[in-house]
Amino acid sequence: MLGVDHQTGRTPTAAGPHLESLERQLSCPICLELFSKPVLILPCQHNLCRGCASRLYETHNPYHYTGGVFRCPTCRYEVYLDRHGVGGLRRNLLVENIVDICREQQARDSSKCASTSGDGGEPLCAEHEEETLNVYCRTCQVPTCSLCKVFGAHKNCEVCLLSDVYLSRKGELARAVDALGARRDGARAAVEELEGLAKRVAEGGRRQRDTLTERFEALCGVLHEKRAALLLEVAQEEEAQLETVRGLIERHQGAQRDIAALLQTALLAVEEQPPAATAASFLLTSGELLARIRTAAQRVPLPVPKSDREGKEHLHCAVGTEQAEAALRSLDFDGERF
């Protein structure tokens, strides 16, 4: 009897080490069995049974209704999934077909027409224990013996030499393996190319960000310098105009004091009730007082700046920033490829 493969947990087939090696390549890294349909291909190009992939995904993402992530059990590559979960992964039909071929071979090896001799030699027919399996039944697609063709269950079937089917099947399997290997190599090359593209895109993005940051810092520097210069001009103009206004205030205050003193003198003269003997002295002094009042009346009011009298701003900022603002708002990223 054949022993048990301690790595896969399966019994090796009678087809030899080549089929056993192929079975190991077509085994799920989780359940350690041949892949069960549907077979899903991960972004890292490794494969999983859908059932195993679902259990692995749900174990690592208990709240997986909006997506999640798990690691490939073979290479530890992080696989990100959206809300569709493992349903968003593609099926590997080529692997499924090769697994079907392996399962068919296993079924033939364990068919009722075949058994293995106790000494590990050629497989023997289960119906005719002394006969080796030396022909292949095309109708039933199993190896059988010559007596089964002549007298047994396969007497009405189409048979051929085992060597013919062996070479054909081995060539078919070899071509399938080569095709799968080519697909794997192509996928690996595509991944390497895309990873290089991702690095170039990231580097281009970093350069664009650095360039934009430098240019906008330069613009901000110009704006700060211009603002400081304009604020200085405003402060200087403000101080000049305040100096003029302060001078006018002092002149008005001086006139106000002179008029107050003159009014007080005039009021005293008007309110005084002199006797008739002093009327002459009043008339002598009143003439000079009237002349002083008329002169003061002509000096007041002193001129006041027109803008102040109309309640308007005396300082007016005439900086035209509309075009600059429009130009800044029109700045945009042209979407050029990195």
From TrEMBL:
Keyword Magnesium: no
Gene3D superfamilies documented for this protein: 1.20.5.170, Classic Zinc Finger, Zinc/RING finger domain, C3HC4 (zinc finger)
Pfam family, one: zf-B_box
One cellular-component annotation, GO: microtubule
Chief site of localization: cytoplasm
Domain B box-type stretches: 120-155
A biological-process GO annotation: cell differentiation
Alphabetized UniProt keyword annotations: Coiled coil, Differentiation, Metal-binding, Microtubule, Zinc, Zinc-finger
Superkingdom to which the source organism belongs: Eukaryota
Segments forming domain RING-type: 28-76
Subcellular localization: Cytoplasm, Myofibril, Sarcomere, Z line
Domain COS per the UniProt entry, residue ranges: 274-334
PROSITE patterns referenced in this protein's UniProt entry, alphabetically: COS, ZF_BBOX, ZF_RING_1, ZF_RING_2
Gene Ontology MF annotations: zinc ion binding
Protein function: May bind and stabilize microtubules during myotubes formation.
Protein name: Tripartite motif-containing protein 54
Native organism taxonomy: Eukaryota, Metazoa, Chordata, Craniata, Vertebrata
